[in-house]
Amino acid sequence: SSRAKGLQALFKHSNLTLTGSLIKSLALSLPRNGLTIYLDNYFTSIPLFEELRTCSFSTVSTTRPYS
After folding, report:
1. I need a surface site. Which of 6, 25, 32, 50 has the fewest CB within 10 A?
2. Could you tell me which residues are beta bridge partners of residue 60?
3. Which of 14, 45, 13, 41 is nearest to 26 (CA)?
């Protein structure tokens, strides 16, 4: 648990934002066989989708029209 481990430094992936890096780090702690990760539009980015795909995760997200 986070209380047992305390706060830890977040590894910043070179092509991801800090938020994207957090999502990837959390995803890597999950089993990878057939898992689909659902994201809100706040977390949606093509680089994050590409990174998760290379780790064998499927992703689905909501989007907003570009304005």
Report:
1. 6
2. 38
3. 13
Scan for tokens 């089993």, then name that residue.
Answer: 31
Please state, in angstroms and rounded to a whole number, the distance separating the CA atoms of residues 39 and 23. 9
Distance CA 23, CA 66 (A): 23
Contact 8, 30 (CB under 8 A): no
Distance CA 39, CA 58 (A): 11
Nearest to 38 by CA among 52, 55, 22, 19: 52
Residue boundaries of the structural domains of the chain: 34-67
- Concatenate the DSSP letters of all residues of 1-19 into one string: -HHHH---PPP--TTS-HH
Contact 13, 20 (CB under 8 A): yes
